[in-house]
Amino acid sequence: xxxxxxxxxxxxxxxxxxxxxxxxxxxxxxxxxxxxxxxxxxxxxxxxxxxxxxxxxxxxxxxxxxxxxxxxxxxxxxxxxxxxxxxxxxxxxxxxxxxxxxxxxxxxxxxxxxxxxxxxxxxxxxxxxxxxxxxxxxxxxxxxxxxxxxxxxxxxxxxxxxxxxxxxxxxxxxxxxxxxxxxxxxxxxxxxxxxxxxx
Length: 199
Known about the structure:
- The protein is α/β, with parallel strands linked by helices and 199 residues long.
- It has helices spanning 2-25, 40-57, 73-78, 112-117, 144-156, 169-177, 187-192; strands spanning 32-38, 61-67, 84-86, 106-109, 135-138, 161-165, 183-186.
- The strands form three sheets. Strands 2-1-3 form a three-stranded parallel β-sheet, covered by helices on one side. A two-stranded antiparallel ribbon has the order 4-7. A two-stranded parallel ribbon has the order 5-6.
């Protein structure tokens, strides 16, 4: 038994020596690859700033940005497919820790003529309750932003009149500006869109 223990002990001690040698040779600066998941609209606004900050402060770190939908983020983090994510309204859960980074306004987007007909003033704060009954184009039910709108509507006891479910942000924006119905977009979505002066 003593001989068996001695053999294992030597192996363990040799491995510790190798480990200590590796640690002594480790670079003083962080290095390696970090995979960041980003929702499409957030990515179009923040990816450049993130990459610039990493290049300036962590020159030995290589960043991979993966476009992800908010609903997929928890599973991707648990599965080690991504290391971090910038996404909408993800709750902490087993294997996923979250922290708010910023808050943004949401905007009711539609044609000026349709807004005037409903007595909605442009460039003014619109109370959430004004959405009651207004025809809306929104993303499908799995979308985090849509879920947040529905939670708020339920809490305020108003009815969202979903005229159609349109997952494409660009199509929803264009249809809203044509006066067919309204849509609700986040600030980053509007910033990411082409020709945002029209909105």
